[in-house]
Amino acid sequence: MTINAHARHATDRVAVPVGRSLVRVGVTANMLTAAGLVGTLVGVAVVVGGEPVAGGWLLGIASLLDALDGTVARLRGAPSPVGSFYDSVADRVSDAAILGAAAWLVRDDPLLFAAAVVALAGAQLTSYVRAKAESLGWHATVGVIERPERLVIVLAGMILGQLGVALLVLAVGSVITVGQRFHAVLRQAGVT
User: What pTM value is reported for the model?
Assistant: First the structure.
């Protein structure tokens, strides 16, 4: 269903060797998180500046850099609560910036603008529900659209000129995902 849950083995075949190379040259997970965040903000500026295809490619590269931070932290044997916190906050900023740029691109179309706002809210809620559930001792990792899928869908939409379709898919998928996570928590709590 999701990339994290079902394609981890395949993605690790690429991420682990790349991560080992980065560790050998002294790159840390926090460096990758910072580079991914800065790259995202630059990509968003390019998108908002009127170049959604070029900006979409920059956002894709920045997202790939950011995707390696967890692998590098594990390979260095140095995953830390502070690094995990930093990465989570940077991911939320990146999500908001990317979906905000998407909303900017479709600002003249009320339906697509509404879809972008729902997708943005859904992205934030998807992460919040999981974090809150975990803080209470439950888990909420279910759902049809997690961060990797969200990034692939919105960036493909930008690059291929199909942002409207991408935003509609994200809006619907995000609402479904939040509902799936909410239901999973209620089930664990014995409410349903």
Answer: 0.90
